Amino acid sequence: MSGCRLMRAISVSEFGGPSVLRLCSNVTVPQLGRRQVLIRVHACGVNPVEAYIRAGTYARKPTLPYTPGTDVAGVVETVGEEVVAVKAGDRVFTTATESGGYAEFTVAAEDCVHKLPEALDFTQGAAIGIPYFTAYRALVHKAQSKAGETVLIHGASGGVGVAACQLSRALGLRVFGTAGTPEGMNLVLNNGAHMAFNHREEGYTNKIMEATDGKGIGVILEMLSNINLSKDLQMLAYGGRVTIVGSRGPIEINPRDIMAKESSIMGVALFFATPEEKKECAALLYAGMETGWLRPVVGSQYPLDKAAQAHHDIIESPGAAGKIVLTM
Which family is annotated (predicted)? Predict the structure, then answer.
């Protein structure tokens, strides 16, 4: 039935700069399979990885043409015959889509669709998926953070950073965060960080070390490894861990910094999360929504036809302040 309906969607037919994100108004509404859900999209989060994929610089490249977007929030339109978790009319958010989220409708697999509590609006729902699931994977599944440890979130005012601040505080960690603007530092402090530091300030790493009484940091979540990784290794405590969430290029490091502390560097890629890991994460995050500590911070909002501007800003803006979201 949905096959003959048309919708607006962003289509990418070549890899390149933000201008390759083109709005099409005659795209067929996608068909859904037995275990899939058709969602009327109200908002879709924009993630840095989507800009890397669009540019053609990411390890995995989708088949052209494609529609970007994984983190939508909206209302279930219809469900496949074997779907039991949600029904038509439910408010939901997703952690992945089959057909792309920069569109008025999207299809997602049932296990990637989660109910959105009434306390959160659709723009907040669109800020949950990749940011919070990535933060959980980095802190829990990779770094195996323990209550009482000190965590440094290097780039804490963006989507993943804010999620990591809230989650770290809920897990009982001592939370340090960095940002590049006074606004960003206030945002970090208002979302769970005990202390905030300006990573554009000369000597800021010395201040971080002073705040640990010289003992160093147990866990670092790193959003911009190509700039910060060498400094991170020098700030770690004995047995400390750096989790690589983001990088925009190569960097030179001294392996002796790792040897001296018996520290670890580990990559974080949500793509490799098992179904069991996703369920565990979803359960904890839903508890956070119910109890109130999970409260996504939405930054700049753009209409669908300004997706190219959103992609430009997520990479080029001088300081992040919450999650960038497209609205339909």
Answer: Belongs to the zinc-containing alcohol dehydrogenase family. Quinone oxidoreductase subfamily.
pLDDT of residue 178: 97
Distance of CA 126 to the CA centre of its chain: 10
For residue 91, CA distances in Å to 51, 107, 116, 265, 278 come to 27, 14, 5, 38, 20
d(CA 38, CA 46): 20
Q: What was the pLDDT predicted at 322?
A: 86
Give the tokens for residue 168. Answer: 């770290």
Q: How far apart are CA 139 and CA 192, in angstroms?
A: 15
On whether the pTM is more than 0.90, the answer is yes
Closest alpha carbon to 205 in 176, 185, 169, 238: 176
Parallel, antiparallel or unpaired: strands 298-303 and 264-267: unpaired
- Please tell me what DSSP assigns to residue 246: -
For residue 1, what pLDDT is reported?
47
The residue extents of the domains of the chain are 6-127+298-327, 131-271
Q: Which of helix, strand or coil describes residue 16?
A: coil
Q: How far is CA 102 from the centre of its chain?
A: 16
Q: Which residues pair with 202 in a beta bridge?
A: none
Is the domain spanning 131-271 CATH 3.40.50.300? The answer is: no
What CATH homologous superfamily does 6-127+298-327 map to? Medium-chain alcohol dehydrogenases, catalytic domain (3.90.180.10)
Cβ atoms within 10 A of the Cβ of 16, count? Answer: 12
Q: Which residues of the chain have pLDDT under 70?
A: 1-3
Q: Could you give the CA distance from residue 124 to residue 72 in angstroms, rounded to a whole number?
A: 10
Distance CA(118)–CA(256), nearest Å, equals: 51
Q: Which two tokens mark 221?
A: 């979540």
DSSP one-letter string for 50-94:
HHHHHHT-SSS-PPSSB-----EEEEEEEE-TT--S--TT-EEEE
The pLDDT assigned to 321 comes to 83
Return the closest-CA partner of residue 70 out of 43, 36, 30: 43
Selection from 73, 94, 81 nearest residue 31 by Cα: 81
pLDDT at 60: 87
